[in-house]
Amino acid sequence: MVTYYSKAWLEAGKEALNNSEKHLKQGKKLNGIFDFRILDGPDGKDRRGTWEFENGKCLNVSYECQPAPWTELREMPLDSGHVGRISCPFSLLAKLNKGEMSPMKAFTTPEYILEGQKMKFITMMTALNSWNEHVARIECNYDFQATDNKGNEI
């Protein structure tokens, strides 16, 4: 089982999305780069995950983690070439992924910070929901205490 929001989890998400005819149909409007800053993981690390899409197909994922607080990540300006960036605590994103919180509830939570081209998010809502639905199916471990530099539990 992969560790939630690790390099292996992102790769599993990419594979799940690209191998799903349903997602490729529903996700056609999903285009651009999306950056996630996931703060204060249970292992004491901040994470950064970047997803790149073209017409629903996930072209690339990247992953980094550093001990929290990762000042460089937390102070990093938004890349204007990205569709958007989501910043939130690990615990909140885990609740969303487990289905314990709806996407709409997350959007209205002050700890869930969405920056970037917000109108594009609205036009991509069906595609974004498909993305969330598919990665939420990945069996993963949310409760871990220590990880390596790829986010894998040690």
Tell me briefly what this model is.
With 154 residues, the protein is an alpha/beta fold. It is built from 7 helices and 7 strands. The two termini are 13 Å apart.
Describe the protein's architecture and organization:
- With 154 residues, this protein is α/β, with parallel strands linked by helices.
- Helix content is 35%, strand content 28%.
- The strands form 2 sheets. The chain has a 5-stranded mixed sheet with strand order 4-3-2-5-6.
- The longest helix is centred in the N-terminal third of the chain and has 12 residues, at 7-18.
Topology:
Layout: E1 2-3, H1 7-18, H2 21-26, E2 32-39, E3 45-54, E4 57-67, H3 71-75, E5 84-89, H4 90-98, H5 103-107, E6 113-116, H6 118-123, H7 125-135, E7 140-141
Parallel strand pairs: 1-7, 2-5
Antiparallel strand pairs: 2-3, 3-4, 5-6
Features:
single chain; 154 residues; alpha/beta; Nonspecific Lipid-transfer Protein, Chain A; five-stranded mixed sheet; two-stranded parallel ribbon; globular
